[in-house]
Backbone:
């Protein structure tokens, strides 16, 4: 169970990074 929770935390942190990258890309295109 602990390994599964660690994978979930890793996926969430990775997802957050992807969201930040996408938002930065959208802002650059909006300029």
Residues:
């Amino acid at each position: 169970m602990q390994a599964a929770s660690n994978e979930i935390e890793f996926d969430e942190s990775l997802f957050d990074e992807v969201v930040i990258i996408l938002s930065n890309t959208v802002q650059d295109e909006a300029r």
Observations:
- Helices lie at 2-30.
